[in-house]
């Protein structure tokens, strides 16, 4: 039986499951590496910097982690060649307290 580590992550990380889906599909995001109770924003962005859509805000649990379901935003048709889900701290915006994970649109 696997046991969960009690050592906190030192840097945020996030994974999407599945990592490819159509617009409007539900995706589960699992993230960790945040401080307990830290406010975190989830956004969806393209790598070219043309757009970033705020998806929702969440609060990290007592272990600095969270898992939430989100809907894949509608493709605006510009700059979504290499989209990513991004999680970033609203409490520590001046630090590199963020992570992202690549995502693929299925048409």
Q: Overview of this structure, please?
A:
Mean pLDDT is 84; it is low at 1-7. The chain has strands at residues 13-17, 20-21, 26-32, 39-46, 52-59, 66-71, 83-89, 98-102, 104-105. The chain is globular and about 40 Å long. It has 107 residues and is mainly β.
Describe the secondary-structure layout.
Layout: E1 13-17, E2 20-21, E3 26-32, E4 39-46, E5 52-59, E6 66-71, E7 83-89, E8 98-102, E9 104-105
Parallel strand pairs: 2-9
Antiparallel strand pairs: 1-3, 3-6, 4-5, 4-7, 7-8
**Which class best fits the helix and strand makeup?**
mainly beta
Question: Numbering strands along the chain, what is their spatial order in the largest sheet?
Answer: 5-4-7-8
Strand fraction: over 45%
Low-confidence stretches: 1-7
The major pleated sheet works out as: 4 strands, antiparallel
The ordered string of helix (H) and strand (E) elements is: EEEEEEEEE
Kindly report the average pLDDT value. Answer: 84
The radius of gyration over CA amounts to 14 Å
Strand segment tally: 9
For the termini, the CA-CA separation is 39 Å
The coarse overall form would be globular
Please count the helical segments: 0
Q: Helical residue percent?
A: under 10%
């Amino acid at each position: 039986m696997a046991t969960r580590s009690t050592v906190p992550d030192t840097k945020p990380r996030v994974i999407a499951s599945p990592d490819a889906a159509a617009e409007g599909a539900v995706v589960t995001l699992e993230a960790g590496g945040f401080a307990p109770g830290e406010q975190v924003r989830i956004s969806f962005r393209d790598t070219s910097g043309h757009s970033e859509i705020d998806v929702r805000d969440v609060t990290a649990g007592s272990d600095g982690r969270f898992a939430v379901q989100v809907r894949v935003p509608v493709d605006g048709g510009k700059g979504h060649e290499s989209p990513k889900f991004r999680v970033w701290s609203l409490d520590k915006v001046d630090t590199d307290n963020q992570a992202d994970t690549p995502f693929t649109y299925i048409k």
